[in-house]
């Protein structure tokens, strides 16, 4: 049996994609009506927010320690 090895980047990607997937319809609707300035501003704000959330002690611990524990997965998401 092959062991599944995942790195932190895989975990971060999963968290991001699930989040974007949950709000896909709203994001597409808003994006379609946004000006280029608003799109640029949104991208900058989103990046800032992602970095802010993903550098908290709680999130970092959830992707570094016991990553397959239910509590760690819930914490990451």
Poorly predicted residue ranges: none
What is the mean predicted local confidence, pLDDT?
81
How many individual helices? 5
Instruction: State the separation between the terminal residues, measured CA to CA.
Output: 28 Å
Largest sheet: none
* Helix/strand order, N-terminal first: HHHHH
Shape: elongated
* Strands, total number: 0
Helix-strand category = mainly alpha
Helix % is over 70%
- Beta-strand residue fraction: under 5%
Described by its quaternary structure, the protein is: single chain
**Number of domain units:** 1
As a whole number of angstroms, the C-alpha radius of gyration is: 15 Å
Helix/strand layout:
Layout: H1 8-22, H2 24-33, H3 36-54, H4 57-64, H5 70-76
Helix pairs in contact: 4-5
Top keywords for this entry?
single chain, 77 residues, mainly alpha, 5 helices, 77% helix, 0% strand, elongated
Your description of this structure?
The structure is a single chain. The chain is mostly helical. The protein has one domain (8-76). The protein is built from 5 helices and no strands. The relative contact order is 0.11.
Entry summary:
This protein is mostly helical and 77 residues long. The protein has helices at 8-22, 24-33, 36-54, 57-64, 70-76.
């Amino acid at each position: 049996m092959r062991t599944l090895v995942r790195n932190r980047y895989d975990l971060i990607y999963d968290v991001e994609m699930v989040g974007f997937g949950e709000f896909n319809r709203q994001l597409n609707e808003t994006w379609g009506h946004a000006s280029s300035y608003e799109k640029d501003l949104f991208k900058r704000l989103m990046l800032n927010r992602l970095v802010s959330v993903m550098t908290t002690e709680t999130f970092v611990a959830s992707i570094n320690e016991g990553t397959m524990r239910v509590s760690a997965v819930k914490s990451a998401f």
